[in-house]
Design brief:
The chain has 275 residues and is an alpha+beta fold. Helix content is 39%, strand content 25%. Strand 4 (141-155) and strand 5 (162-170) form a beta hairpin.
Length: 275
């Protein structure tokens, strides 16, 4: 019964996104994404706002290091289909939280946040395993890729200041990014194994507005963690970029769900992404 409900929800997401988001031509290059259930017969592909998000992050000179010299516009993967979604709970969630905190990228970010007075909110950890199937043009066959996405909520006692870390792990490696709300400012942190990098506000503002477009066309029945993971699959070959996308997308999704009539810029301004 639960599997049928899951498939039905994913199919609804397919119909909405394929109708509303694919007015412009499908993306060229990147790991182009279709949001599909296993039994769906929808054949349209691409996601115009996803392409814009990918372009903004890929082309930012401060973020070149997260792509390790690769241009993901030359991706061999296309026509991504969501095949399975599993939210991790119980003992498995405890284990995966420990594994996540031990990752060098996450640990560097977390240690920095601890120095700022933050600590992990263990009860608010969200972890999801998403299996997507892509057409691999190089291998001339379909390829399944499992993505583990862990979102950590970091809080400060007696304060409205918050931080979030998004960790992504798949066959292409691991990556993480942190979104920090501190002293009336909001910024992104990444670990480049040499220093911390603060991402410019202009990038988050523009990315936020594109994500608002995606969220507005997604059915409210789909959870934000699943919807954002789906939208960010365009970065399947660059886990750190996938983490950035998730960090910006999840607050956007929650805000737009509660305020469906807000405009893209207004939503991002209220969220602190836009000046």
């Amino acid at each position: 019964m639960l599997k049928k409900i899951k498939n039905h929800l994913l199919l609804l997401l397919v119909i909405v996104l394929s109708t509303a988001l694919l007015i412009t031509p499908a993306m060229a290059g990147y790991a182009s994404v279709k949001v599909l259930s296993e039994n769906s017969e929808v054949t349209s592909s691409g996601c115009a706002p996803c392409t814009e998000v990918a372009n903004m992050i890929q082309d930012d000179p401060n973020l070149k290091f997260i792509f390790d010299g690769k241009d993901i516009k030359d991706s061999q993967l296309s026509d991504g289909k969501i095949k399975d979604v599993k939210e991790i709970t119980g003992k498995e969630l405890t284990q995966i939280t420990e594994t996540t905190l031990a990752d060098k990228h996450v640990n560097a970010l977390y240690q920095d946040l601890i120095k700022r007075g933050f600590e992990l909110s263990k009860e608010n950890v969200i972890a999801t395993k998403i299996t997507a199937e892509f057409n691999n043009s190089k291998l001339n066959k379909h390829e399944k890729i499992e993505n583990t996405i862990v979102n950590l909520s970091i809080v400060k006692d007696n304060s409205n200041e918050t931080a979030f870390i998004s960790f992504v792990s798949n066959k292409f490696g691991t990556g993480a990014a942190a979104l920090v709300n501190e002293e009336n400012s909001q910024f992104l942190l990444l670990y480049n194994e040499k220093d911390k990098l603060v991402v410019s506000a202009s990038i988050t503002c523009l990315v936020c507005q594109q994500l608002v477009t995606i969220v507005k066309n997604a059915p409210q029945a789909v959870s934000c963690s699943i919807m954002c993971a789906t939208a960010c699959l365009v970065f399947v070959e660059a886990p750190p970029a996938m983490g950035i996308c998730n960090l910006i997308c999840n607050p956007v999704c929650r805000y737009v769900t509660k305020n469906p009539n807000t405009g893209a810029y207004s939503a991002c301004e209220n969220l602190g992404y836009c000046p």
